[in-house]
Every structure is written in structure tokens, then in C-alpha cells.
Specification:
alpha/beta, Rossmann fold, seven-stranded mixed sheet, 33% helix, 26% strand, globular, Protein N-lysine methyltransferase METTL21A, transferase
Length: 215
């Protein structure tokens, strides 16, 4: 999910969110994502951060084949779909209200042999975390925006990661509170800015758990 359209031209930006479909091609697959701004708002449109993260996964040599992946705040599911096409076992998550829409996009865009390796689950950050294990990769696009969710999001990151896990966060740093969250992350993770897309002002951050030594 994301907060609001952040194009300098707000009217032009909103127009694309009112399109009922958004078309992409990743991993040699045509992907048709249904959008529903009117009914579900920010949870049901494709944001720039998701597209940039998909491009990064495909072009930067991230080895997702046979890895375990969880996407947080998946929205339309584009990132999780691309991760599955790249060979990962993927758990795609969002809140209950978005799940039916999310499942539709996943089912419509993945062949049956790949769909068997994908699950769509409800996840409210910080809650019922025992239903989730550790993952090789944790993916999130435009999920850093509401300050009241920061503690629960960090708690979720800590639960689903081991010292070998990699978090990839794609976002635009809009406000000072976004930097506050990054500082919260750095108390538990090494955080590196590994990619910047000049066209969209979107950053991708790579984070891994800090090593802890037993005394």
C-alpha cells in the first residue's frame, strides 16, 4: 500500500489510478493488474515503488530461485507475482479487506505450476505473527508512511527475519517521519541504499539483521 499520489502533477497522477487495468511485462510475461481505486483506494492501485522494485528484482541479479519470499502490504500483488515468476516460493500478504482483490490478481497472472508455490494470507503487522516463519527475502513497496504503524512493522520485520534474511524496501522518502523509521530499522539491521530511480524518486533499501554475539 501507499499513502497518496506523489507526482508533482496530482491530477495527471490520479488519472492512471482510475484505470481499471495496468499492463506490465516482467520475466517475459505479460501481466495485467486490475485496479479498483473507487472501492479500495490506495490498496488497489499500482504505485511507482512497486514497479521500481519489480525492475530491480528482474535486472539486478537478485537470486530468488527456490528461495522463500514474503511480501508485506502487497496491495495489487504485482511484486509478489514477479517474485513468483522469478522462481520463489512466495507468501503475499495484506489486510483482510484487500485479500479477495489480491487473490484475483495473483490467480489471473500466474500459470498453475507457479501458482502452486504461492499463498495469499492476511497479515496485520504486529499481530498473529506465529502464523509466519522466517523467510529468505522480505519485500515491501511503499509500506513506510503511517507513523502509528512503525512499531508494528518493525516487530513484523524482526519476526520474519533471521540473520541470513534480506529485506528489500522500495519507497520514496517523503517526510521526516520516514527517516525516523529508517533510524528505527538501523537499531536492528544494517541498512544500505542500493538503488535510486531518478524518474520516480524511488529508493530501494537493502537491510539485514545485525549480528549478535553471545557472551
Amino acid at each position: 500500500m501507499a499513502l497518496v499520489p506523489y507526482s508533482d502533477n496530482g491530477v495527471a497522477s490520479l488519472k492512471r489510478f482510475h484505470n481499471l487495468n495496468a499492463s506490465f511485462n516482467f520475466v517475459n510475461h505479460d501481466i495485467q493488474i486490475k485496479q479498483d481505486w473507487k472501492q479500495l483506494g490506495v490498496a488497489a492501485v499500482v504505485w511507482d515503488a512497486a514497479v521500481v522494485l519489480c525492475m530491480y528484482l528482474e535486472s539486478e541479479g537478485v537470486q530468488l530461485q527456490d528461495s522463500s519470499v514474503i511480501e508485506l502490504g502487497a496491495g495489487t500483488g504485482l511484486v509478489g507475482i514477479v517474485a513468483a515468476l522469478l522462481g520463489a516460493d512466495v507468501t503475499i500478504t495484506d489486510r483482510d479487506v484487500a485479500l479477495e482483490f489480491l487473490r484475483m490478481n495473483v490467480k489471473d497472472n500466474l500459470p498453475c505450476d507457479i501458482l502452486r508455490k504461492v499463498s495469499v494470507k492476511s497479515l496485520n503487522w504486529g499481530q498473529s505473527l506465529d502464523d509466519f516463519s522466517k523467510y529468505d527475502f522480505i519485500l515491501g513497496a511503499d509500506i513506510i508512511y503511517l507513523e502509528e504503524t512503525f512499531s508494528d512493522l518493525l516487530k513484523t520485520f524482526l519476526h520474519v527475519t533471521s540473520e541470513n534474511s534480506v529485506i528489500l524496501l522500495s519507497c520514496r522518502l517523503r517526510y521526516q517521519r520516514d527517516y525516523v523509521f529508517m533510524d528505527m530499522m538501523k537499531e536492528h539491521f544494517t541498512v544500505a541504499d542500493v538503488h535510486y530511480d531518478t524518474n520516480t524518486d524511488v529508493h530501494i533499501f537493502r537491510a539485514q539483521r545485525l549480528c549478535t554475539k553471545e557472551l
